[in-house]
Amino acid sequence: MFEMNPLSFPDATLQHAIMLFVAGTLGFIIGYVSRKGLIAQLEGDLASTERELADCQRVPAAPADQEAVILNRVRARAGELDFGRIGLASAADADDLKDIVGVGPFLEKKLHAVGIYTFRQIANFTKDDVDKVNDIIEFFPGRIERDDWVGQSAEFERKKRM
C-alpha cells in the first residue's frame, strides 16, 4: 500500500515553516484588528463620559444673583410668621442650624432671611408654624416633620443649656 509520510517530501520542513508563519501572521492580524476595535469603543465611552462631566460642571449650583433673588423672595414673606409666639432672635444670637439633619448652608440662609436664627425658635414651632415655614422657605412639603426639626432643635437647645 501507500505509505504517506509528510516528512518524506524534500520541502516538508519549508512547508511547515510557511504554515507556521501564516498562522502566526493571521493570529497577529486578528488580534491587532480586535484590539483596535476595543480601543475605539473605549475611546467613544471616554468621550461620552467627558461630555456628561462637562455638562454637569457647566450647570452652576446656584448663581449668586439667583440666590439673592430667592432670599429676597423668602425675606418678603417673613411677616407671615408669629414671632411673638416662636420668639425673636438676631444674627448675634444665631445657632448653627446646619446641625439639624436636613438643613444645609443655603437652607440656613433662607431661615435666617425669615428671621429664624436659633434652635429655641424652631423648638417652639407648632404644626401651623411648620407648614407656614415650609411654604415660605420653599422646601419639600412635609420634610421638616419627617426630619423632626422641632425635636432635634429641642434636644440641641437642651444640650446648649447644660
- Give unreliable regions as ranges: none
Order of helices and strands: HHHHHHHH
Total beta strands: 0
| Overall radius of gyration | 36 Å
Question: What distance separates the N and C termini?
Answer: 111 Å
Content of β-strand: under 5%
Largest sheet: none
Give the domain tally.
Answer: 2
* Overall pLDDT confidence: 88
* Helix and strand composition category: mainly alpha
For the structure shown, list the relevant keywords.
single chain; 162 residues; mainly alpha; 2 domains; rod-shaped
Kindly describe this structure.
By secondary structure, the chain is mainly α. It folds into 2 domains: 11-58; 64-161, no CATH class. 65% of the residues lie in helices and 0% in strands. The protein has 8 helices and no strands. α2 (64-76) packs parallel to α4. It is rod-shaped, with a radius of gyration of 36 Å.
Q: Can you describe this structure in just a few lines?
A:
The chain crosses the membrane at residues 12-33. This protein is mainly α and 162 residues long. The chain has helices at residues 12-58, 64-76, 83-86, 105-114, 119-123, 127-136, 143-146, 149-161.
Topology:
Elements: H1 12-58, H2 64-76, H3 83-86, H4 105-114, H5 119-123, H6 127-136, H7 143-146, H8 149-161
Helix pairs in contact: 2-4
Transmembrane segments: 12-33
Keywords: Membrane, Transmembrane, Transmembrane helix
